[in-house]
Amino acid sequence: MRVLIAPDSFGSTLGPVQAATAMAAGWAEGAPHDEVEVLPLSDGGPGFLDVLMRALGGTTIATTVSDPLGREVPAAVLVVERDGRRTAYVEASQASGLHLLGADERDPSITGTWGVGQLLEAALATGPDKVVVGVGGSGTHDAGAGMLSALGAGPASELARGGRHLATVSDDVLLGLPGVIDRWRGVDLVLATDDDTPLLGLQGTSAVDAPRKGASPEQAQALEAALGRFTEVVGRALPTPQVDLLSGMPWRLDREPGAGAAGGLGYALLALGARRASAVAEVLRECGFGVAAARSDLVVTGAGLVDWRQARDSVVAGVAAATMETARPTVLIAGECLLGRRDTMTMGFASSYAVAETPAELEAMVADPVATLAQRTARVARTWSPAAP
After folding, report:
1. What phi, psi does 42 have (nearest 5°)?
2. Distances in whole angstroms, Cα of residue 274 to Cα of each of 8, 26, 53, 59, 154
3. CB of 177 within 8 A of CB of 148?
4. pLDDT tens, per residue, the chain with 389 residues
5. How far, in Å, CA of 279 to CA of 266, rounded?
6. What secondary structure does DSSP assign to 41-103, as a single string?
7. Rounded distance, CA 331 to CA 30, Å?
8. Distance CA 57, CA 51 (A)
9. Are 75 and 95 in contact (CB under 8 A)?
């Protein structure tokens, strides 16, 4: 049997390539007679560049940027030349990722995106026709203010101090924004995200995403107000306010799907003129997933945690939907699966399995994620693979 193993990362413990390698080793142990192909995937978060470089090749430009708390961390930009066009890929989580913060450092009211601006500067320096920014896995919540400051839109003293400080920014803090927009005007800037959260409101990023990053209910409310104030300042600074052609009313950038992605980083990228695209669809296309699935008998995908959020906008959901077009079965292996069998079947999975189903198994998974993922995959392989003749 030909098996395609195509997982996302497993939280902050295993990147997509590491997870795929562990699952392939487990499948080889459980069904050594099978032919296994490995195709790690990403939703634009940690591992985005590794996945694309494995599929596309290209050149990595190494750099050093600030993390969410201003500490220097290594990062890179991937540059791919194809059909006479140059595309630079940016993994925002290299500078703003939640994985860069210790458990006691997760405070989205003070973390910032200055380092993402440094990454964009490095990408722009390569002379690209297109820049794709994957924004998954964020630990920040400043509506991209720090990023805009690093690009020259306004002073760091007001913009690069975290989301809560946006409540008191001055009206003219973004005097440099029109110039930044001009610098990016000739570049096809892409916001790669499957998060369609708006910036503000009851379903906005402060209500939905900030608590996951460590915000208390009181902090989430304060962040909502601060981001609201920031949108007022951005609205004044935009060189040409746009009008909705249907209603004739001013276009509300903060209401755009994806504006709330990565704690509002999507909002700042849209303000620079970015267009939103599905990160999962982009990766599936660039990695040739459809062709690989069609030549396989079974597709196995995985992720660290699968809950209601992953039921629609995730690598595993994208894999299940794309594989259905090839009429191949798809199996899900998750670190933890909080969905019932009916839910996973609705997503398109023939079966789903969790690495950790008890406290003891969860403890073992944290202690040795590679071994436990490989062991679980080996058991799945024995279930799904017919015995060798």
Report:
1. -155, 155
2. 25, 41, 23, 23, 19
3. yes
4. 999 999 999 987 899 999 999 999 999 999 999 999 999 999 999 999 999 999 999 999 999 999 999 999 999 999 999 999 999 999 999 999 999 999 899 999 999 999 999 999 999 999 999 999 999 999 999 999 999 999 999 999 999 999 999 999 999 999 999 999 999 999 999 999 999 999 999 999 999 999 989 899 999 999 999 999 999 999 989 877 666 666 666 678 999 999 999 999 999 999 999 999 999 999 999 999 999 999 999 999 999 888 887 777 899 999 999 999 999 999 999 998 888 899 999 999 999 999 987 777 777 777 888 999 999 999 999 999 987 55
5. 13
6. --SSSTTHHHHHHHHH--EEEEEEEE-TTS-EEEEEEEEEEETTEEEEEEETHHHHBGGGS-G
7. 15
8. 10
9. yes
Question: How much helix, strand and coil, in percent to the nearest 5, is found in the chain?
Answer: 45, 20, 35
Structure pTM?
0.92
Q: How far apart are CA 146 and CA 141, in angstroms?
A: 10
Name the strands in the sheet holding 130-134, side by side, starting at the edge strand that comes first in the sequence. Answer: 59-66, 72-82, 85-91, 130-134, 188-192, 275-277
Q: How far is CA 13 from the centre of its chain?
A: 16
